[in-house]
Amino acid sequence: RVEAWYAKGEQPVVRVVCHSGRSLRVTPDHRVALADGSWKTAGVLTPHDEVRLDPPQFAASEAVLSWSPGGQASVMMTVTPEVGLWLGYFMGDGSWYRDRYEVTCDGRDQDVIDEVIKGIEYVFGHTPVCDRCTGSGQPASGAVRVRIHSRWHREWLAGTGLIRRQSTTQRAYRRVVHVPSVIWQSPREVVGMFLSGLFEADGCSAGAQVRFSTRHEQFAYDVQLLLLGFGIPASVRPWKGTSRVGSPIHSAWYLTVSGLAVELFHDVIGFRGARKRAQRPTRAKKAANQRPSH
To answer: Quick check: 69 pLDDT over 70?
Structure first.
């Protein structure tokens, strides 16, 4: 908790990038802890310095979402593991458009679709509608949209920072892709469920790696920090494609878990659906089968 602060005016900012992909944005006179116990200001760090990066500490009890619909009495919801999972799916494959909450799922993953439906019922108290997307660019099985429509939902999603207006001159609301503040305030189990839903939505198992992609740089680094809380190191790298004529196209940020950390990811986070779980590397599957049961 911040207890005091003072203004230093406008200052230049440097970015310290570590080998793991984690970065710090600080002023040059900001003191940074090194692995040997000493300190240096950010402005004089060299490529040979080893910066001490401590993992995040998770909360001891569940957080609470609160909002005041129409300026009336506050409404509260405890952020349980089920809510954490719902938030992960929404930040990964969710959207908000014209008072419609929607999560798009791969039509091949009926188990995931069923779980998204249960999550929406748990949070909103209503059964959503499902329809299959058709048209060019869709896989043979199609994508399935799980959606629910309500203006009241808009009020509390905006009140908790999950959606916001595109601009002060427009009335339309859009999803805000970020790690919600209540996840930073949640215990390990809730954070793990958030990450599991998020990786099921926007992640994949690529050979001996687990990857996650997003168009939002800060989101990628925040997810990297959450993974570190479980002892899972990951790297973050930018990617920019080019069209056939050489012009830049869609850019993204890739978070990659590799090496021994892949097994740890599958053990403590994992994917939700059977299809993606089956893509776990053979070595990791064998190790899991040999692990004694408790």
So the answer is: no
Q: Characterize 200-239 residue by residue with b for buried, 16 or more Cβ atoms within 10 angstroms of its Cβ, and e for exposed.
A: bbbbebeeebbbbebeeeebbbbbbebbbbbebbbbbeee
Measured distance CA(2)–CA(212) in Å, rounded: 32
Q: Residue 10 has which token pair?
A: 């406008």
Question: pLDDT tens digit string along 106-165?
Answer: 999 999 999 999 999 999 889 999 998 765 554 556 899 999 988 778 888 888 889 998
Please name the helix (run of DSSP H) or strand (run of DSSP E) that holds residue 101, with its range, or none: strand 100-106
CA atoms within 13 A on the CB side of 246: 0
Average pLDDT of span 25-31: 91
CA angle 159, 62, 202 (to 5 degrees): 70
What's the pTM value of the predicted model, to 2 decimals?
A: 0.82
DSSP string of 112-160? HHHHHHHHHHHHHSSPPEEEE--STT--TT-EEEEEEE-HHHHHHHHHT
**What is the Cα–Cα distance from 30 to 26, expressed in whole angstroms?**
6
Q: Answer with the residue of higher pLDDT: 160 or 103.
A: 103
Cβ atoms of 249 and 268 within 8 Å: the answer is: no
Single out the residue of 216, 215, 228 nearest to residue 257, CA to CA: 228
The partner residues of 26 in beta bridges, in order of sequence, read 14
